[in-house]
Amino acid sequence: MAKTALVTGSNSGIGLAIARQMAQAGYQIALNSFTDRPEDHALAETVAAETGQRVIYLAADMAKPADCRALVERAHETLGGLDVLVNNAGIQFVAPVEEFPQERWDAIIAINLSSAFHTTAKAIPLMKAAGGGRIVNIASAHGLRASPFKSAYVAAKHGIVGFTKTVALELAGSNITCNAICPGFVRTPLVEKQIDDLAATHSHLRKEEVVRDIVMQKQPSKQFVTVEQIGATTVFLCSDAAAQITGTTISVDGGWTAQ
Q: Is Cell inner membrane found in the keyword set (predicted)?
């Protein structure tokens, strides 16, 4: 029977790349986001056609604890098991602490941190009953380093790293591993918009100069991480080669956190 994986926040960007690479590695996949549009289900059909695996789409609002837990249960029931849980869902907002809107703080903590608690808590008994599993949390270089004006995001991603370690220790010896991937800057549509905004602000600079001198200031390689690299790292953490890797962070950040 094919192994199964649920990837939260996976109808675009990093999450979709992870789902695609997991499907290419032979996993049945549950895609997820908060919308429930025909194009979401069409995306699942497209990935299924590309990879030859069963791929479904399940809508759930990761800001709601009940939705998070129900999502895991639905994925398990629909796919007939749950071997891998990838907690990827996340949002961002940038502002000084004293100006940071409370509702934005609450939403970032709920989606970027608390959702991983709820999905993991629901998945652990299912994985234990099945004899094992893999939990992969998509953190960030900001789970290991801070930047100004990103208080909620940095707090949430630091929290994900700590949560990862705790879960790994609790599950040691159960054949369930839990690890965090910490990407640096990845060229997603979200980052592309930030580049365009910065280019408009710094109109005296060419776009490639904005990328090199402003966006990539903290990333020594001066190259973006690709979504495919994050997907491949996830596949590795779910492989037999990674059976004794647990409770750790893997930085895919062009040297950012080496500084």
A: no
User: 247, 178 in Cβ contact below 8 A?
Assistant: yes
CB neighbour list of residue 140: distance below 8 Å, 6 or more residues apart: 153, 157, 182, 183
Q: List, in sequence order, the alpha helices (H) in 80-211.
A: 102-109, 115-130, 151-171, 189-201, 207-210
Please give the model's pTM, rounded to 2 decimal places.
Answer: 0.96
pLDDT of residue 18: 98
pLDDT band with cut points at 50, 70 and 90 for residue 202: confident
Look up 57 and say whether it is catalytic. no
DSSP letter at 142?
Answer: G
Q: Please tell us whether the domain made up of 4-185+225-252 is placed in CATH 3.40.50.720.
A: yes
**Residue in the structure block whose two tokens are 């008994």:** 125
Per annotation, catalytic residue among 105, 153, 185, 256:
153
For 131, the token pair is 């004899």
- Write down the domain spans for the chain: 4-185+225-252, 187-224
